Amino acid sequence: MSQHSVITGANRGIGLALATQLQQRGEKVTAVCRTASDALKKLGVNIVENIDVTDTDSITELAKQLHDQPIDMLINNAGLLERESLGNLTPQTIEAQFRVNAMGPLLVTDALRDNLKQGSKVILITSRMGSMADNGSGAYYGYRMSKAALNAAGVSLANDLKDAGIAVAMLHPGFVQTEMVNNAGDISADTAAERLIARMDELNIESTGQFRHSNGDSLPW
Predict the structure, then answer these.
(1) Are 122 and 157 a contacting pair, CB within 8 Å?
(2) Nearest alpha-carbon partner for 106 in 61, 38, 160
(3) Which three-class secondary structure state does DSSP give residue 217?
(4) Cα–Cα–Cα angle for 221, 108, 146, nearest 5°?
(5) Positions in the chain whose pLDDT score sits under 70
(6) Based on CB atoms within 10 Å of each CB, which residue in 37, 57, 157, 181 is the most buried?
(7) Distance, C-alpha 10 to centroid of its chain
(8) Does residue 33 come out as left (phi exceeding 0), alpha (psi in the -120 to 50 range) or beta?
(9) 193-196 long-range Cβ contacts below 8 angstroms, 24+ apart
(10) How far apart are CA 126 and CA 47, in angstroms?
(11) What is the pLDDT of residues 157-201, one digit of tens each?
(12) 98: which DSSP letter?
């Protein structure tokens, strides 16, 4: 039986690239999104639309649609980036990033807990911008704060799920050419996905709870 991977935010960018590459290697893929793109529809994977990771009713609906389907890899990829700076702080955008980037992955993982089993993996697509030690440029308040919060949730998940044999990883994809950054990155989504999948394959219960770059480097908290 092929491995089943569930990916949030799978309609474009890194999520779409992950869905494509995992399907190409023979995995069953469930692509979760608010609205499926034409590119996602062409893949022929299982698509669950109208899912907003900030909405509890949406998350409940996702759990219903995946009822009794074992999940080998849950990839929490959906994310939001805004660009706050001092003098340009908007509480609404900061809160929105917390809800998508930090709360969403936690709530989705909790809702799908019964689908996970010994040997399953939970992946949190985070960012080195959530690192305290690595912050040398400031700004991006909502994004940095929400990704730091996601990392904190990831460590707790790693501790809480370890006895069940479920491993958790916080993975930074790199500076990727996606719509989120107006395609200003230095690697393609395809390259990022390839690297991320390599890190997912390496993940085991002994390495659970780590914060790593897609190139394999460990990142500072």
Answers:
(1) yes
(2) 160
(3) coil
(4) 35
(5) 1, 179-185
(6) 157
(7) 10
(8) beta
(9) 193/14, 193/17, 193/18, 193/20, 193/21, 194/21, 196/14, 196/18, 196/123, 196/125, 196/171
(10) 23
(11) 999 999 999 999 999 999 887 766 566 667 899 999 999 999 999
(12) I
H/E stretch holding 197 reads: helix 189-202
The residue to which tokens 């200003």 are assigned: 184
The candidate with the shortest Cα–Cα distance to 31, out of 10, 59, 54, 58, is 10
The strand pair at 46-48 and 167-172 is best described as unpaired
| Token code pair at residue 50 | 């109208």
Q: What is the pLDDT of residue 183?
A: 67
Chain position carrying tokens 């908007």 = 90
Structure tokens at 150: 């996601």
Residue 31, phi then psi, degrees to nearest 5: -100, 120
